[in-house]
User: Fold this.
Amino acid sequence: MKLAPELTSILITLLVGLSSLAQADQRSAAGATRTSVDYGELPLLLDLRDDFVTIRYTPGSLDRAARLQVAFRDLVKNLSLWTKQPRASIVYLLSREEWLRLGVASPYGFPGIMAGNRVVLPAWGDAETAKSWGGYLGGVLPSVSERDSLRGTPDADASLVASQLISEVAVARVHLSQSGIVGTEPWVDPFVAHLAVVSSWSKNKDPRKTAVAKIYSRISQSAGGAGAYSFYDYAPGLPPEAWLWYQAQFFEGAVRLERRRGWPVIKSVIKRGSKRGGTLRAEELLARFPELVTWQQEVFSDWR
Assistant:
């Protein structure tokens, strides 16, 4: 069964592909970060600039770069307002060969975060990304309209749909980190990044949230559903299916909090961190927003 075309149309503007690094590499690097890199190894990249998002893209991927710039712009604008630290995001859009040459720690298709807080994304989907995402989505890829097709097969293009979800969250995480907002426990940073994305959609009356929730639900169910993993085992470097499962739960928690408190809740969360020099204390978040306790009890196997 395929996703309804209208859901695909909403999502396809968001998303970028998942990859075919060796399975052993995939199982050790999901969510990983490389801390040093020589961007001079990529002399042929082109720039698509604006005041909020600059995309450095490999030749032939201008259409993808333009779509990503649009998808990220409102988020970066809102984060600049909420953190009171205007800054532009720089995103690299790379071919598989460039990805490997640069030594990105994350598998091709997951966003990488490189030296200088640069988000690195894949330029295209291919047969391997289609195979990977077919597995993560329970064997079903969304249909792709002619308008949304890019340069690959329909399945390769369809594999771009789900992975952009994580890419937008990566942009939020980098912006928050650069602004000095850092959590005291591993779950806090990804949760707040998801909250920023969800709040930005609501603030701008963006229709994507419902469709995105269906994608995350399929990711979660494919990996075992609620209770599949321990609250205490989340960390960068998990196997992709586990790492994605956690992202689905963080999204669910963000949606619950934003639905209960309204999109301005992200401003309250950021302000709370700013008062403590940027530190977001997990215990204070749980005390201030008790609905987060309920969320954690319901979706993790052993929260206490």
In short: The two ends are 38 Å apart (CA to CA). Residues 1-28 have pLDDT under 50 and may be disordered. Residues 125 and 245 are 21 Å apart (CA to CA). The first helix runs from residue 5 to 12.
